[in-house]
Amino acid sequence: MEKVNIAQKLSLFSEFWSPKIVGELNGQLVKLAKFKGEFVWHKHEGEDEMFYVLSGVLNIEFRDRVETLRENEFIIVPRGVEHKPVATEEVSVMLFEPNTTLNTGDQVNEKTRSSLDKI
Amino acid sequence: MEKVNIAQKLSLFSEFWSPKIVGELNGQLVKLAKFKGEFVWHKHEGEDEMFYVLSGVLNIEFRDRVETLRENEFIIVPRGVEHKPVATEEVSVMLFEPNTTLNTGDQVNEKTRSSLDKI
């Protein structure tokens, strides 16, 4: 059991759209990620997903609207809901989701990361 | 589905040691709490518990040491591990734990909150 310093962990990687595992509890993972640009439309059939913005601005597009998240704002995307994260500038995000969650959900493409590093 | 602004939610309450529910996903709750003073020694037999410090300094005493958490640091206390949160000055914390978790774990006393408000 060790404490985790978010800034220190964020300094360890620079790759976009490649979540890193920084904690696990009750079958859920805590991940850090950096986003820039547009992700892909996807959904997670069996998993709710939480996006917590640590720095920057994250737009999450839904089929009927866009939610804009700033520092220290979060949203929980319920299972089954299509979404597409978009970041005009670099954004750092903390994710909470089950350890079964694939980053691209029901889509498999060049952004899919099936094995995540623990940092 | 609505985004949550942490500062706005923290402005809605001032009571110490009384976690408020601000989100739920995958059977887990996201809670906000303000701590000041000493809590009680306790453990959660079946639940891991995450403490994420939003502002202030939180000491978590364990039987063999103390961990000091500052802003944007977190720790995951594994199930079964006795701990006692202590905050010399006011601290704001985000908690992440199963929806079955009782704040005082295996102890029931004046600090026990068996029904939490959702804000």
Automatic annotation (TrEMBL), chains A, B:
It holds the Pfam family Cupin_2. Residues 36-95 form the Cupin type-2 domain. The keyword Isomerase applies. Signal peptide: none annotated. The keyword Transmembrane helix does not apply. Coiled coil: none annotated. SUPFAM superfamilies: RmlC-like cupins. This is Mannose-6-phosphate isomerase. It comes from Chitinophaga caeni. Keywords: Isomerase. The lineage of its organism: Bacteria, Pseudomonadati, Bacteroidota, Chitinophagia, Chitinophagales. GO terms for molecular function: isomerase activity. InterPro entries: Cupin_2, PKS_Associated_Protein, RmlC-like_jellyroll, RmlC_Cupin_sf.
